[in-house]
Design brief:
The complex is a heterodimer.
Chain A: E1 5-8, H1 9-13, E2 17-18, H2 21-36, E3 41-44, E4 50-51, H3 53-59, H4 69-75, E5 76-79, H5 83-101, H6 103-116
Parallel strand pairs in A: 1-3, 2-4, 3-5
Helix pairs in contact in A: 2-3
Chain B: E1 2-4, H1 12-25, E2 32-36, H2 48-60, E3 64-68, H3 72-80, E4 99-105, H4 110-122, H5 132-152, E5 159-166, E6 171-178, H6 183-191, H7 197-204, H8 221-232, E7 235-248, E8 251-271
Parallel strand pairs in B: 1-2, 2-3
Antiparallel strand pairs in B: 4-5, 5-6, 6-8, 7-8
Helix pairs in contact in B: 1-2, 4-5, 5-8
Classes of the chains: A alpha/beta, B alpha/beta.
Chain lengths: 121, 290
């Protein structure tokens, strides 16, 4: 990935607080345009202090609705990310894969959880 | 029309009193609404987001809202956090710096909200000393709550927030209220499940449940918040429609309210003495995240 685009989230968002879905969408637009060209991209979290699932769902989670897991895995890399932020990203990624891969199974999980919640807890 | 308000704490009785006020006053139009607060022997500042949202809705019905006979100690609290400045009174200095000001935001005010949180909460000199991990998780949780309101409430009337430091109890209370469609209605229209208001809140905080549809996945915000509160030893309360949901000490309480609230309240209280590291010990690395 020597000719990878390096995309600074801090530069795209203009703030160390990457919390809004609308800001995540700006990152997604650039990522998607790059991946559509089959080019690799390194997403830098340098200087980012705060992330939310809403931001990451918009920025990265929705990639799985357009690109295959293999495409994302081979073309997208992250750097300068703290371990706990990586943990949040991992959960966003796993949720997104489930959300897009098998809508029926996702609905089934919802129904099963509903059944388990019948005691109101 | 005249109404009265009892003592308001951040607990089921406090929420019940406020939804009853809403139920009694919601049909007023072009009216003068006088709220007698002589029996309000205490008003917890972090409940101002709920009260303010109700009064805002009443104002939208072109009513004139007046808060009357406020006891001096309550007036002091509600003046320090700026709440009473919305109702014809001034703001007084908060000498001990224990209030987090009352504010109303539009859904597109995310930058404004971020600045408010940084200035009025995170970087306040009065902020109790907390571990860097706790502070980071707390900050993220506050933003998750706001994002949740923006993404799910469909509100056009704004998002209300405020908070309170409790130095002796080593707690910070923070509330975000929206005047949106509520969790029950959202679950019904988005997922097709017709649940009771309390069960709808419980559903939204569980597993992989989400009301999100379309190209952007979701469903993590409230779960992350719940997990954080479980680790931290704090408390989270959610009111939506006529449902009350509370999580504390890893136990959940779901109860009905006698009247619906016209939106959703998420109220958290965090334990500032928490020393959890909040770091993942797994072998997770940037190379295996996708």
């Amino acid at each position: 990935m020597s000719n990878n685009l390096v995309l600074s989230i801090f530069e795209v968002v203009g703030s160390p607080l990457c919390v809004a879905s609308s800001d995540g969408q700006k990152v997604y637009d650039r990522l998607a345009a790059t991946l559509k060209e089959g080019r690799g991209v390194i997403l830098s979290f340098h200087n980012v202090t705060t992330l939310t699932s809403a931001f990451l769902n918009a920025a990265i989670g929705q990639l799985y609705g357009v690109f295959s897991e293999e495409q994302v895995r081979s073309l997208l890399k992250v750097q300068d990310m703290e371990t706990d932020d990586l943990g949040l990203l991992k959960r966003v990624v796993e949720t997104a894969k489930m959300y897009f891969k098998d809508p029926q199974k996702f609905e089934q999980a919802i129904q099963e959880t509903l059944g388990n919640d019948s005691d109101g807890t | 029309m005249n109404f009265s308000l009892p003592r308001i704490n951040p607990d089921p009785a406090g929420f019940e009193a406020l939804v009853c006020l809403w139920a009694q006053a919601k049909d007023c139009l072009f009216d003068e609404i006088d709220i007698d607060m002589s029996a309000t022997t205490w008003f917890s500042a972090d409940m101002c987001a709920v009260f303010g949202a109700i009064l805002y809705r009443l104002g939208e019905n072109l009513n004139t809202v007046k808060l009357k006979r406020i006891r001096p100690d309550v007036e002091s609290v509600l003046s320090k956090n700026g709440f009473l400045s919305h109702y014809g009174r001034g703001t007084i200095p908060d000498r001990w710096g224990t209030t987090i000001p009352y504010r109303r935001f539009d859904v597109k005010d995310d930058r404004f909200f971020s600045g408010y949180i940084e200035m009025e909460l995170i970087h306040r000199p009065e902020m109790p000393a907390m571990s860097s991990g706790l502070l980071k998780r707390f900050r993220e949780s506050v933003f998750e709550i706001f994002s949740n309101a923006v993404l799910h409430s469909r509100t056009k009337q704004g998002i209300f927030s405020c908070g309170q430091f409790f130095p002796k109890k080593h707690r910070i209370g923070f509330s975000v209220t929206d005047l949106g469609i509520g969790i029950r209605q959202n679950v019904k229209t988005s997922v097709g499940l017709d649940l009771s208001p309390g069960d709808a809140i419980a559903w939204a905080t569980e597993g992989q449940n989400t009301t999100k549809r379309g190209q952007i996945p979701g469903g993590l915000g409230l779960k992350l918040l719940r997990e954080f509160i479980d680790l931290n030893g704090g408390r989270i309360q959610i009111v939506s429609d006529a449902g009350y949901w509370m999580r504390e000490n890893r136990k959940t309480v779901v109860a009905p309210l006698s009247q619906p609230f016209p939106g959703t309240v998420v109220s958290v209280e965090i334990n500032t003495t928490d020393t959890n590291a909040y770091r993942l010990s797994s072998e997770l690395s940037a190379t295996n995240v996708f």
